[in-house]
UniProtKB/TrEMBL annotation:
Keywords: Cytoplasm, Metal-binding, Receptor, Repeat, Zinc, Zinc-finger. GO terms for molecular function: tumor necrosis factor receptor binding; ubiquitin protein ligase binding; zinc ion binding. One of its GO terms (biological process) is regulation of canonical NF-kappaB signal transduction. InterPro entries: TRAF-like, Znf_RING/FYVE/PHD, Znf_TRAF. This is TNF receptorassociated factor 4like. It is found in: Cytoplasm. The keyword NAD does not apply. The keyword Metal-binding applies. A zinc finger (TRAF-type) spans 31-83, 84-138. GO terms for cellular component: cytoplasm. Residues 31-83, 84-138 form the TRAF-type domain. Pfam families: zf-TRAF.
Length: 216
């Protein structure tokens, strides 16, 4: 009788391995295909196994294979490809390379950028660009890229003179620094001097430290 109750009775209770609830043998097989806690593979073929009662929320909110629309061009993509689409989306907003006021904070649709640069980008609102040799002394700056390019072509000799003067000046500075280093490392009386920063603080720390002694 005991074996019958445990193994063969059609009325015996069996616990579901997923939700842990008890069911009779007559209904356990039907419950097994409906249990909300049973992990099943996502129908979007993302590779994840999700509990049946959470599957719909997963497919709508977090599944990497769910279908989402690009907010700029309204075309549909899977969620895991949307970011790569933005790199080439023709409606994705991009900043004006001249950082002009007309482009605003939201940028310009990628497909309109070339037209914007040709027709709409106001030169008076562009941030001036300096000459590549400004650190050598060239003071030229312009909001017009073509003007800057022409300056670079036409002022080659001028820029060479600036660089030559800069190199000569730097050589003098390097020589002066080397002389100062040599003087700092030279002792004329045979006594080697060491400069210790915060000497008073270090003496106090030494006096208060165990196992350390100060010698005159």
């Amino acid at each position: 009788m005991e074996d019958h109750m445990m193994y063969t009775c059609s009325k015996r209770l069996i616990a579901c391995i997923f939700c842990k609830r008890d069911f009779s043998v007559a209904v356990i097989s039907d419950h097994a295909g409906k249990c909300g806690f049973e992990p099943i593979y996502c129908e979007n073929k993302c590779g994840q196994r999700i509990q049946r009662n959470r599957l719909k929320a997963h497919q709508v909110n977090t599944c990497c294979k769910r279908i989402v629309s690009c907010q700029y061009c309204s075309r549909n993509f899977t969620a895991d490809t949307l970011q790569s689409h933005h790199v080439k989306c023709f409606m994705f907003p991009v900043p004006c390379p001249n950082r002009c006021v007309e482009s605003g904070d939201l940028g310009i649709p990628r497909e309109d950028l070339e037209r914007h640069l040709t027709d709409d980008c106001g030169k008076e609102t562009r941030i001036p660009k300096v000459c590549e040799y400004h650190e050598a002394g060239c003071g030229y700056r312009s909001t017009d890229p073509e003007g800057l390019a022409a300056h670079m072509r036409e002022k080659v000799a001028y820029h060479l003179d600036l660089m030559s003067s800069l190199v000569h000046k730097q050589k003098g500075q390097i020589k002066q620094l080397l002389n100062q280093v040599e003087l700092a490392n030279t002792s004329y009386d045979g006594v080697l001097l060491w400069k210790i920063k915060n000497i008073s603080t270090k003496i106090q720390e030494s006096k208060s430290s165990e196992g350390l002694e100060l010698s005159p």
